[in-house]
Amino acid sequence: MTHRCRTTGADREEREDTLLQHRRPAYPAHSPCGAGQQTADLAANRAFLPRGGPTDEQLIAYALDIKDRPREYAYVFDPAGQLLFCLKGERAAIQFDYRDRFRLFQTIFLHNHPLGSSFSLADIQTACAFNMQAMLAATRTHLFILTPPNRDPFFTRGHYRDIVRCYRIRSAMLPASQRLTICDRLWDAISVDMDMTYTRVRLDGSTSPGDAIGDHSPGSG
After folding, report:
1. Taking burial as the number of CB atoms within 10 A of a residue's CB, which of 19, 29, 113, 177 is the most buried?
2. Taking a C-beta distance cutoff of 8 angstroms, is the pair 142, 48 a contact?
3. What is the pLDDT at residue 44?
4. Are 100 and 87 within 8 A, CB to CB?
5. Is the pLDDT of residue 20 over 80?
6. Count of other CB atoms within 10 angstroms of residue 176
7. Are strands 83-88 and 108-112 parallel, antiparallel or unpaired?
8. What's the rounded Cα separation, in Å, for the pair 51 and 49?
9. Of 114, 85, 111, 120, whose CA–CA distance to 100 is shortest?
């Protein structure tokens, strides 16, 4: 995901129309994956975001709504869990206009990755540049959730510098055959090094409820 700047009236009108469609129901009404049927099992007895915000059921429902789409989409929430607005992007990028840049500060950002990878450094740069509370990425099979180091309330630019340094060191330790792809195990290691909470949630229904959730969180070992 990138955050290049572009403003068009058509994009803004379409984005606002999408927002109106999604703010009324508790979950997306047209979710192609039956969000209401899966969320109870997947989110049982678990809080993905330690400081509140959208409920686990809401996050999974919105992830299910966009996980199979061929372009990147994003739902942006405030720290209290209110859906603020929606964004429509391209196959591997979401472009922010000037108005979006003002509205992204201290938010929770959920978007999909049509290419199927976990977090990119562009995702982390976005989270840190806008002091986000959490960054989430949905693929066809998983929802990935990352919260700031050291239990800080928001990502910062200082965090980005440290995360990138750790990312490069850990990447250099991977076998050469794995360095061109973003490896989930790489973020496992980085989250432990940086004392971040990194959570994975299965979205494809292929696991039992007891196996649905895994994470590396501060103090979890």
Report:
1. 113
2. no
3. 45
4. yes
5. no
6. 6
7. unpaired
8. 6
9. 85
Indicate if the alpha-carbon torsion angle 187, 188, 194, 199 is positive or negative.
Answer: positive
The radius of gyration computed from the CA coordinates of the chain, to the nearest angstrom, equals 17
* Cβ(93)–Cβ(62) below 8 Å: no
Q: Which of 30, 15, 21, 104 is nearest to 66 (CA)?
A: 30
Token pair for residue 57?
A: 């059921």
Euclidean distance between CA atoms 58 and 127, whole angstroms: 20
Phi first, then psi: what are they for 193, rounded to 5°? -60, -40
Q: What is the pLDDT of residues 141-157, one digit of tens each?
A: 999 999 999 999 999 99
Give the position of tokens 């976005």. 126
| pTM exceeds 0.90, yes or no | no
Max CA distance (Å), the chain:
49
Tell which residue, 126, 161, 122, 140, has the closest CA to residue 33: 140
How many residues are given for the chain?
221
Tell the residue number behind the tokens 């739902």, with chain if given.
Answer: 75
Q: Which residues pair with 76 in a beta bridge?
A: 85, 109
Q: How many H helices and E strands in the chain?
A: 7, 7
What is the per-residue pLDDT across 60-107, written as a single tens digit (0 to 9) for each?
Answer: 999 999 999 999 999 999 999 999 999 999 988 898 888 888 899 999
Q: Is the dihedral of CA 143, 165, 197, 157 positive or negative?
A: negative
